[in-house]
Amino acid sequence: YTPVGKAEQGKFALEVAAKTLPFYK
């Protein structure tokens, strides 16, 4: 269990979502 890894993964997922979301609208 790595809180830091999870935080990084979450931030990465957020960035990817923010970049790809506009393409689906």
UniProtKB/TrEMBL annotation:
Keywords linked to the UniProt accession: Aminopeptidase, Hydrolase, Protease
The keyword Protease is assigned to this record: yes
Record has Hydrolase as a keyword: yes
GO MF annotations, alphabetized: aminopeptidase activity
Superkingdom of origin organism: Eukaryota
Designated name of the protein: Aminopeptidase puromycin sensitive-like protein
Species this protein is from: Acomys russatus (Golden spiny mouse)
Organism classification: Eukaryota, Metazoa, Chordata, Craniata, Vertebrata
